[in-house]
Amino acid sequence: MRDKRKMEREGNMKSVLFFAILLAGGVALSAWMGIADSRLAAGRGTSLNNSQKNPVLREGEVLIWDPNSSAPLPIPPSRTKPPPVPIRRPDAYAPIYEPAYASHPFYRNTRRLMSLAKPLGSPHSGDWRTLVREPEQDFDQFVRDSRRSGGTLVVQPIGDLPADQRRAIGHVLDAISAFFGVQAICASPISLSVLPSGCFRTTDGWKQINAEALMSGTLGPLVGGGVAAIVAVTDLDLYPGGDWPFESAFGWSSYDQGTAVVSTARIIDRSPANRGRNLFRLTKLFIHELSHTYALKHCSLFNCLMNGSGNLRESDAKPLSLCPDCLAKLSLVTGRDPGAHVAEMIGLCRAKGFSADARYYRLASRALKL
Ligand SMILES: [Zn+2]
Ligand SMILES: [Zn+2]
Q1: Alpha-carbon distance 319 to 118, whole Å?
Q2: How many A from CA of 279 to the centre of ligand 1?
Q3: Of 135, 227, 302, 325, which is least surrounded by CB within 10 A?
Q4: Positive or negative torsion for Cα 265, 177, 182, 32
């Protein structure tokens, strides 16, 4: 059994207590055997095979990795900017924690951003901090929590996503790559038909997927061998599973297994006029959940991408940026200078039309004297 304290959760809660006990083991291989659908990007995607390792992608296109092909993980084209980050074994992180994180230049650099940090105000009714009591993760705790190797971040579609969401994933991959400084790719979709029936339920008219069952049974075995973390995406609704008293969730992730899942069901507005807002929501949700897989827990000190979300209003209020403390954690665990992160994010936010966050990153760049 997994330690539930290591699980992250957030979502749209109505305090409906349920106890879902589902068997989830042993499905990963059968799930992968069922993969046959490479239509992810339907005219916008590029499948990788052994003779085509480095295709040129256009804006918004998706690089598709088919793990059944036995081809190595694809190398993204140089357009995705960040140089490859060497794979680090967990032990390789040790020197940055000695003698103390406080003396590390990455940590000291992030202190220059303190003047830009906005303390988090009091929560409203229904906000995350009124629903879940979580201790603040200080740096000593983070150092104890963070043990992971480097590698590629993989987006794993579950089922046949609508065309607009398939296109959006291409943009989200750009954002993931810029934010974490590693390559990010999309895998061939896993068909819903190969997931065990215990993965599903229907609540209040929503067809839902059991997040913990999906992560532990299907995604977990895919981590490792160059895959640092994998985040599934589905347009079905999510529920946490286990004994969590939440009826739904926007996203869910594991701190220690490199797995996460996000749902577009409650965050995507089908109106074409809201395409920009949809992309912004999706980008923040993916990166928030992936940051949890780097052992970053919820932040309750500053306005920060790592704030928990108990509802959509609260989720929309989050920026696409980390507060100085959370950026220090990410920098320490990825081995990437916070200045490189900020410089990448200026370009990314400009390119994707995230204007408020582009402004923040420009100010951050000035504060860091880049
Ligand atoms: Zn979270
Ligand atoms: Zn923070």
Answers
A1: 11
A2: 18
A3: 135
A4: positive
* Per-chain mean pLDDT for the chain: 78
Q: How confident is the model at residue 225 (pLDDT cuts 50, 70, 90)?
A: confident
Domain range for residue 127?
Answer: 90-148+296-370
Q: Is the pLDDT of residue 42 over 70?
A: no
The share of the chain scoring above pLDDT 70, in percent, equals 72
User: Which ligand gives the minimal distance to the CA of 240?
Assistant: 1
pLDDT number for residue 59: 46
Residue 324 zone, left/alpha/beta (φ > 0; ψ -120 to 50; rest)? alpha
From the CA of 39, how far away is ligand 1's center (Å)?
30
pLDDT at 195 over 60: yes
Q: What is the pLDDT of residue 88?
A: 37
SS3 22: coil
Residue 138 pLDDT? 84
* Ligand 1 center–CA 308 separation, angstroms: 5
Confidence bin at 43 (pLDDT 50/70/90)? very low
Could you say which of 236, 253, 286 is where a domain stops?
286
pLDDT of residue 318: 97
Q: Which residues surround ligand 1, an ion (CB under 5 A)?
A: 8, 10
Tell me how far CA of residue 149 lies from CA of 93, 141, 216, 226, 336, in angstroms. Answer: 9, 18, 19, 9, 14
CATH, residue 56: 3.40.390.10
Same domain (yes/no): 121, 48? no
pLDDT of residue 35: 25
Neighbours of ion ligand 2 (CB under 5 A): 299, 304, 306, 323, 326
Residue 11 lies in a domain: no
Which ligand is nearest the CA of 249, by number? 1
